Amino acid sequence: MKEDFLHYLWKFKKFDVLNLVTTDGQKVEILNCGTHNTQNSGPDFFNAKLQIGNQTWAGNVEIHLKSSDWYAHQHQKDLAYDNVILHVVWEDDVEVFRKDNTVIATLKLSDFASAEALKNYRKLLERQDYKWINCEKDLKSVSSFTVENWIERLYIERLQEKSIAIENALKNSKNDWEAVCFQLLAKNFGLNINGVAFFKMASIVPFSIIRKTNKVETLEALFYGLLNMIPKDDGDVYTIKLRQDFDYLQKKYQLDFHFEQVEYFRLRPPNFPTIRLSQLATLYANTPQIFMQLMEARSRGEIHKLLKVEVSNYWKTHFTFGKESKRSTKVLSSSFIDLLIINTIVPLKFHYKKLKGDLDLEDCLSLLKELPKEQNSIIQSFNVIRPKIAISALESQALLHLKPNYCDKNRCLQCEIGLSLLKKKV
Question: What Pfam families has UniProt attached to this entry (predicted)?
Fold first, then answer.
């Protein structure tokens, strides 16, 4: 038994509301169960209104598994709990007093709880036969309406989480949206392996340099140099020129930096940091103020047209410095641009429009619906449990948020799918 289940019982009145009495025999009538406090501190339900005996009370309700938890949590010393009018518990093992030594009325909920709710709770959260998530045997039975609405809310929650990183980047760049866009694009050009290194590089370089530079080779020298990727030997003509250009840029702009090691291990050659940085340099040499164009783009096709860039001439015949390979243009693939849309462009658009007071959620959602679902073990497992639960990037992003933030933490009582199963008729 978990305390949040008692919160669920109280919030949705899953008990015999007509025959409630306190542990000392006073009749209880719920006029208003209060507002659920989902923060970390303070009573569990604010502004409740109850009739206890012959008196009407307005105040807060605190819920515990045991009465003695009141003292275990030191509530008797906290003024925030002085306005508690009812202590709702599963097990009554001790009398509870406020700070001024007045007794708090106690309701032992286990005497009145719905047998149906208890059975569903145990089936969902106390079963030992599930393999991956608690509801895997019952997810198919949940209505499409519930699942689809919850998925949209989960995705918005994911966007709000990503807004925190964007807000921090904005503060560090003095609200320069173009600079933040560059930093986040750089991070996602680096993928999981080199994303941190690329982001640090993009955060170190003053964006004013990027803004006024329209030569791919200059940006390549800057990016490779800041990441300590330019070979120190003589090398070929291109490498020598890069080294000279970076030395000049470093002295001119007095660049202070710390090397962040890039990785090649486990990367396919098209994802080598050399190739991704050349593509990033090409993008910014050709369209240095791309942020507003991305914000105004309303379809996948428009964004693909903006981001369909290739490498510079040297990298058409190389994957690494000094080693020639078969000639290829190495254009950003459609699947890679889709990842940029998912991880950079839509979160940026969401936060930018929200701050402007011009947020159109459907604009963000429709863009994700245009993209194919991501392919990984989490999405595959959900699709096995409930076929076609993920058909686009909108669903796959939501499910990637659901699994670690709800399923893995047994937060079924904060999940609309879990709640619908608890309310199910036995």
Answer: DUF2851
Confidence of residue 128 (pLDDT cuts 50, 70, 90): low
Of residues 228, 44, 143, the one with CA closest to residue 417: 143
Q: What is the DSSP string of 275-323?
A: HHHHHHHHHHHH-TT-HHHHHH--SHHHHHHHH-----GGGGSEEETTE
Is 136 in contact with 385 (CB distance < 8 Å)? yes
Neighbour tally for 166: CB within 10 Å: 22
In whole angstroms, give the CA distance from residue 326 to residue 319.
10
Pair of tokens at residue 115: 């047998």
3-state SS of the chain: helix, strand, coil percent to 5? 55, 10, 35
Are 193 and 200 in contact by the 8 Å Cβ rule? The answer is no
Q: How far apart are CA 183 and CA 259, in angstroms?
A: 17
224-282 per-position pLDDT tens digit: 999 999 999 888 999 999 999 999 999 999 997 777 899 999 999 999 999 999 999 99
Q: What is the pLDDT of residue 130?
A: 63
Q: 90 in helix, strand or coil?
A: strand
Helix (H, G, I), strand (E, B) or coil at 406: helix
**b/e map of 318-339 (b: 16 or more CB within 10 Å)?**
bbbbeeeeeeeebbbeeebbbb
- Rounded-to-integer distance, Cα 225 and Cα 227, Å: 5
Contact 312, 216 (CB under 8 A): yes
CA within 13 Å, CB half, 147: 18
User: What's the pLDDT at 5?
Assistant: 92
Residue type for 140, please?
Answer: K
In the 8-state DSSP scheme, what is residue 244? H
CA torsion angle 164 166 171 177 (round to 10):
-160
Angle (deg, nearest 10), helices 144-172 and 393-402: 80
**Nearest Cα to Cα of residue 160 among 340, 361, 356:** 361
